[in-house]
Design a protein that fits this description.
Elements lengths: L1 H72 L7 H22 L2 H5 L2 H16 L2 E8 L5 H21 L4 E9 L2 E8 L17 H10 L3 E6 L5 E8 L5
Helix pairs in contact: 1-2, 1-6, 4-5, 5-6
Length: 240
């Protein structure tokens, strides 16, 4: 009788354990599906951004160039050919910048640090923002992790310069064989409480999803008129 009672308890415990494992698998799958949807949304948002840049920037420049060339063709004396040449050069320059931002060849050819030095230069010059870049790289970083670091920093610098109107930004990147740490601190207008938790807020959701896909953590400290600090930490895996 006692043996039967013990066996019944053991079966009940096993059933309960199996139920817990099933629930954990279900929630794990739900989390993976949610993350996959957010990554897909990030890709779609990037395509929208590129399409808007091409339409509003390069597209308008080429439209103006065509109009000017048509007037030159008609013998319109007030249109200088040099203006058409300037429009063509600006369209070519904008196209090259968009192309490099989509996937800078320097990231594949020379690696993360030269790519970030290039990014810091082209993003700081037009807006007259001072960007201090410090780095300590003690290990090779695999291609996917380099891309993660580049995209997160690109998004953070865009937010700081264009949305937060920052004039000074400090970027730190530290990497070892098992750790990647990125910290971006600016003196911009900051964000109201809770903005950092809004998945649609200034691309912060996209950054958080990118980092989550690598098993890392992204933290944001900000308040109005107090600037913003974004910290990314990816640990517990071989970086190379």
């Amino acid at each position: 009788m006692s043996n039967n009672t013990d066996m019944t308890k053991l079966v009940a415990q096993l059933n309960e354990k199996q139920k817990q494992i099933s629930q954990q698998l279900y929630f794990g799958n739900e989390q993976m599906r949610g993350l996959a949807k957010r990554v897909w949304r990030v890709q779609e948002d990037e395509r929208k951004h590129i399409a808007r840049e091409l339409h509003d920037g390069v597209g308008q420049l080429l439209t103006a160039l065509i109009n000017q060339l048509q007037q030159v063709q008609k013998g319109e004396p007030t249109i200088a050919l040099s203006e058409s040449i300037d429009l063509a050069r600006q369209a070519l320059s904008d196209t090259r910048v968009i192309s490099r931002l989509m996937r800078p060849r320097i990231l594949d050819d020379l690696g993360l640090i030269p790519a970030l030095e290039w990014l810091v230069r082209i993003m700081g010059e037009p807006e007259e923002a001072e960007i201090e870049f410090h780095h300590q790289i003690n290990a090779d970083i695999d291609s996917d992790t380099q891309t993660l670091a580049f995209r997160v920093i690109q998004e953070a610098l865009t937010n700081a310069i264009k949305h937060a109107k920052a004039k000074t930004i400090i970027l730190n990147v530290i990497a070892t064989s098992k750790l990647l740490m990125i910290k971006i601190k600016d003196d911009g207008i900051g964000m109201p409480q809770g903005t950092e938790d809004n998945p649609d807020g200034f691309g912060l959701g996209a950054m958080r999803d990118r980092v989550s896909a690598f098993g890392g953590q992204l933290t944001i400290n900000s308040s109005p008129n107090q600037g913003c600090e974004i910290k990314v930490l990816v640990t517990g895996r071989e970086m190379s």
